[in-house]
Amino acid sequence: MKLRLVLFIFAILAQGLFLSEVASAHPANGIVLDRAGNVYFSDLETIWKIDTTGKLSVFRAGVSGRHVHELAIDEHDNIYGADISCVSQKWIGDIWKMSPDGKFEYLLEPTDRPPRAMSIWRDREGNNYVIDQNNHTKTQTLLLRCAPDGTVTTLAGGAYGHADGNGSAAKFSSVGGVAFGPDGSLYLADGASVRKVGMDGTVVTLAKGLDVRTSEDKPTLFGGSYGSLADVAVDAAGNVYVADAGNRRLFKINREGKSEVLLRTDPPYFPNGVVAERGGDIYVLEVGFTLPGSWSGPRVRKITADGKREILATVGAERDGANLKATIARGAGASAESFLSFFVVGQRIKYGILILSASVLGAGAIMWRRRRKQ
Fold first, then answer.
1. Residue 250 and residue 258: Cα distance in Å, rounded?
2. Which residues, 6 or more positions from 114, have their beta carbon under 8 angstroms from its beta carbon?
3. In this predicted model, what pLDDT tens digit does every residue of 91-123 receive, in sequence order?
4. Residue 253 near residue 262 (C-beta atoms within 8 A)
5. What residues form DSSP beta bridges with 301?
6. Buried b (16+ CB within 10 A) or exposed e, 325-358
7. What is the DSSP letter of 220?
8. Distances (CA, A) of 210 to 3, 96, 124, 177, 245
9. Kind and range of the H or E element at 110?
10. Residue predicted with more confidence, 368 or 19
């Protein structure tokens, strides 16, 4: 009886440890395209470049523990990114810019006290836009705008939820992706919806219910515990593309709000980033994960305007005689979420495991005591 109880307790604890790692995993979704057709993407630490001949090379070398989740690009083909790392139990952040020829500069030097609303998302007037949210407390989600002089205002958002409207009358839930559209509006992947935010703060929902599955869909990522909508992009015609990582799908939403599944990926890959080219071609950043904790190098898929599909490059695959290795690792992008905090905050599954563990331990203790009395 004692051995069975010990083994069962160990199994419960191991399950909790595994799920905490899964729930906190956050691979990169950064992928951008310049005017010449070169593709840049992050594997979380290294920034890669695929040129127009299909050659894969390192654009910015990675540093272990320094994570780059998102990328942005301006009209001059300058690449923007934000580094996040943990040093001496402090979160260090910065914002950087790299020119097409590789010239590097910090827009925000590494600091553990970054100013509010600094981000890589900026318009031509120099305003920064950032999502201010806490997915653990789920109290409010704000879209902030920071003017060049440092003045921060709330463009839209308020209490956590879902509501269209203007300014503080609008509500957002958990935003997973941000992109500028050709009309200058911001497009957000919000929960299971896609939202559009005008520069006057007006929020409208373009599509919702994108978490609904069909018999054609592939097995879910992590059994569905991973956040679904990871990234969003808009083409010149106003069509929106959404990477549904949790369900291994890429959606296309036309200007009338009609959605269709443009791509389904086979395990272990899932689409985590997307960018649209002016001529209608789509580039998808796909990440591979195999249980219990093996991350494979990301790959980039091109979908042409006429529907043809091609894998352009896979980080870690043999190419031109050189073995280019991915820097993405097990638990890549994991937050500083410990085993104990996993049970304290977050999704309902955490509380379920806590209750189950307590029940099992209590029942085991009672049975053990009865066994000793016999």
1. 14
2. 93, 94, 108
3. 999 999 999 999 999 999 999 999 888 899 999
4. no
5. 284, 311
6. ebbbbeebbbbebeeeebbeebeeebeebeeebe
7. P
8. 46, 33, 31, 14, 12
9. strand 104-111
10. 368
With a cut of 90, say whether residue 302 has pLDDT above it: yes
- Does residue 340 come out as left (phi exceeding 0), alpha (psi in the -120 to 50 range) or beta? alpha
Angle, CA of 300, 303 and 305, to the nearest 5°: 150
Q: Are the beta carbons of 330 and 290 closer than 8 angstroms?
A: no
Distance CA 2, CA 365 (A): 10
Tokens (6 digits) for 15: 């399950």
Contacts of 20 (CB under 8 A, 6+ apart): 337, 338, 339, 342
pLDDT value at 145 more than 80: yes
Count CB neighbours of 318 within 10 A: 9
Lowest mean pLDDT among 43-47, 87-91, 278-282, 360-364: 360-364
Q: In the predicted model, is pLDDT for residue 224 greater than 60?
A: no
The pLDDT of 162-180, averaged and rounded, is 96
Inform me whether the pLDDT recorded for 142 exceeds 60.
Answer: yes
- Nearest-angstrom CA–CA distance, 98 and 348: 41
Whether 169 contacts 222, CB under 8 Å: no
Distance, CA of 193 to CA of 287 (rounded, Å)? 22
What the block records as the tokens of 129 is 């836009």
Euclidean distance between CA atoms 302 and 250, whole angstroms: 12
Report the alpha-carbon distance of residue 148 to residue 118 in Å, rounded.
Answer: 10
